[in-house]
Structures are given as C-alpha cells and as structure tokens.
Design brief:
alpha+beta, 4-stranded antiparallel beta sheet, 3-stranded antiparallel beta sheet, 12 strands, flat, disordered N terminus
C-alpha cells in the first residue's frame, strides 16, 4: 500500500488511508528528523499532526471530541475542605494561574484526539510545593531509552539541541530553574502498539475524511453558485498547441468559477458549428446527502458516543428525557472510567509529593439538562438514584444549586 501524498507537497505523511489517492486533510511532513533518539509516532513521526489537522476539518468529529472532553472534565473538582493543600491545587494547579479543571480538560482532549496525553510535574527538592502542567501531546515523543520524553516545537524540523528532555514519573531531574521535573504519559491500550496509544475512534478515520469531503463538495457548489458542470467547446482557429493553451487559460480565468467546474476544449469547428456548452448533469445529489448523514452516524459509533449528546437530533425536537437517559448511560459506561484513568495517577502524585490524602478529590459531574430540583440536597439525590448516601455527611448536606453554578 502506498502512502497518501498531500496536494501541497511531495513529502510523505504518517499514515495510510487508501491506495494511490491524494488527500489534502493530512499535514505534510518530512523524514529528515533523526529518529535514533526517539521512537517515531507514525510512519514518518507525524501521525499526531495528521490527526490534529483532521479534527479541524470534520465538524461532527470535532464536536464529539469537544463534548466528550467537556463531560470528562466536568464542572470542576470537589475535595475535602479540610485539606488546604488539596484545595489550593484545585484552584491553582500551576504558576500560570490555570485551575486543575483547565489542565484536566486539556489532558482529556489530547487523550481522546491522539490516544496519548502528557502531564508535566514540578516540585522542589524539599517537596514544599506541587505544580501540574499540561504538555501538548503533538510536541512529545518517547525517547529510545523509554525512560524519558523528548519535547520539540516542530518535529518536521527536529534539532536535538532545541529539544527538551523530561524523565518519566516517578523519576525526577533538575531543571535550569532549580525545580525538579517529571512527566506522566497517559496512553490508550492497543494491541501491537508498544510506545504510543491509539485513539479509540481509529476505525472511523476514513469516515471522518468522508464527512470533511462532503462538506467541501457543498462549498465548491456554493462557490460556483450551483451552476451546472460541463464542457465548453470553443470554436477557434489556432496554429499550435501554445496558442490553444493560451485561449484555454483565458477562458478558464473568466468563466470557470471557483474552484472551476467547466472543462474547456478548443477545436476548429465546421461551417455550421460554433462554440457550445455541453452540460454534465448529475442525478446523485441525494446519494451525497445520504453519504454525509451516514458518515456522521458512523463517526458517533466509532467514538462510542450518542446522537443526542452530539447535537445531531436537535432539528427533530429537544428531548430532555432522551438526553438525560443517554447521559446516564455515557456517564456509567465511558465518562466515569475515563475520569478515573486520568485522575488516579494525579491522586498518586499528590499523595507522594504533598503527603496529602487525595481520596476525596472527585470530578463534579453535571447533566446537560436539569435532572433534579436545585433545592434538593446531595444525599437526597443520591438516595433517589439508588447510590450510597450519608445524610449526616457535611459534603452531602450541600444543595445541588451549589454544585451546578457556572
């Protein structure tokens, strides 16, 4: 199988979708990077670039990624108010003023988009503070020793002297500013892939490309004012090919439209013939619409997601009951599991470095539609939902309105 070659350049891209077919939704890359220092992420080390570009081209694909990341990061975090160090970390995860929810949301998005996410950890030799930073996963590669992560701003032009090297947690190394640094590497499991994870929607890659191309087809029709495609035969007497080519270029610039759906031919017509336009009509517009709709449905299936949570059923009416039902299913089958997968290592870091019990650190989950009255207490809502509750627990004495404020 030959790799896709982007229209904008001759460099190979990092992964394969179809045979001998050019696609311009992939990011062009090169093979000049020295891969003796790291494990390549994709055939030419630019697989994350291709996934990122595709997510910016396909509307349904991007909507699902945004929504899933939002649900996984929830509305923030709750914790034991007596744990002051824990509360401070929730409110300000690092020196840039980012909250733990902001860092967590970016981790969730990277993991959903790329199947990998990276969290940088900073402390000092005395373990007197803890800062957590999200690192853009497209900048990260696993070093050959599998004990470090290399960070570089542009892997298409890798320069070892400009790369940053961080040890994988629990190892720490001193940074130039005197702090100790480490990095957590999250990755989705996939058989046959040892160094990097693979996104869960991998089976929907071609479908995402179809959704993008059907959108692009509609844009091209709009650019041409929905005019018919066809062949314009020009009656002209020319002496050589260069003169014919010049006539064609001038006609194309004036009449072809954008991006150009008219083919021009120059021929010497007979006495009874002249210039004429031969329309090329198509009766398959319905097939394109069905293809676009099917691509959206397949994308939802590839993401293991739900239509009402993707905003695709609003045209047929807003059903809060269905949204709440599908949210409950998503919460128990996907959201809670993803939250724990991301949060458990963070709890471990807090416990090890701050010597603080982080068991109370939990994501605040809020349904997209109001399920319980705002005046209900937490323990009352848990009782109705059949969950364990303690009506004497101070945390469960809070009203739902306190947890659902924006």
């Amino acid at each position: 199988m030959k790799p896709i070659l982007p229209k904008s350049g001759g460099a190979k891209t990092s992964f394969y979708l179809c045979r001998n077919r050019a696609d311009d939704f992939l990011s062009p890359g090169s093979r000049i990077a020295d891969d003796s220092r790291y494990w390549r992420w994709g055939d030419d080390n630019l697989f994350p670039y291709a996934l990122s570009v595709l997510s910016r081209r396909s509307t349904v694909h991007r909507r699902i990624l945004n929504d899933k990341a939002g649900y996984i990061s929830g509305k923030g975090f709750s914790c034991d108010p007596a744990q002051k160090a824990l509360r401070a970390l929730v409110e300000s995860a690092n020196g840039t003023g980012e909250s733990l929810r902001q860092v967590f949301n970016r981790l969730a998005f990277d993991k959903l988009l790329l199947g990998n996410a990276f969290l940088e950890i900073a402390t000092d030799p005395g373990r007197t503070f803890l800062s957590l930073f999200h690192q853009d996963a497209t900048r990260c590669r696993l070093a050959k020793d599998r004990t470090h992560i290399l960070l570089h701003h542009d892997w298409r032009e890798f320069a070892p002297a400009r790369a940053q090297r961080l040890p994988l947690y629990p190892a720490f190394e001193k940074a130039p500013d005197g702090t100790l640094r480490s990095v957590l590497h999250y990755r989705d499991y996939e058989p046959m892939f040892e160094n990097y994870g693979v996104p869960s929607y991998i089976a929907g890659m071609n479908v995402s490309a179809i959704a993008y191309k059907t959108d692009r087809w509609n844009i091209s029709r709009l650019d041409n004012s929905f005019q018919l495609s066809g062949i314009l035969v020009l009656d002209a007497e020319v002496d050589n090919d260069a003169e014919a080519e010049n006539i064609l270029r001038k006609a194309e610039a004036r009449f072809a439209g954008k991006p150009g759906q008219v083919m021009f031919l120059v021929k010497e017509a007979g006495e009874k013939e002249g210039s004429k336009f031969i329309p090329l009509s198509s009766d398959h517009e319905g097939d394109w619409k069905d293809l676009h709709a099917q691509a959206g449905a397949d994308l939802i299936a590839a993401h293991s997601w739900f239509r009402s949570l993707s905003g695709l059923d609003y045209a047929s009416g807003f059903s809060s009951e269905r949204i709440l039902h599908e949210y409950e299913v998503a919460l128990n089958t996907l959201i809670l599991g993803q939250q724990e997968e991301l949060l458990e290592p963070i709890r471990g870091v807090i416990r090890d470095l701050l010597q603080t019990d982080a068991a109370s650190l939990q994501v605040v989950n809020r349904p997209p539609a109001q399920a319980r009255p705002a005046y209900m207490k937490v323990w009352e809502a848990r009782k109705i939902d059949g969950l364990p509750y303690d009506e004497h627990d101070p945390l469960q004495q809070r009203f739902l309105s306190e947890l659902t404020r924006p």
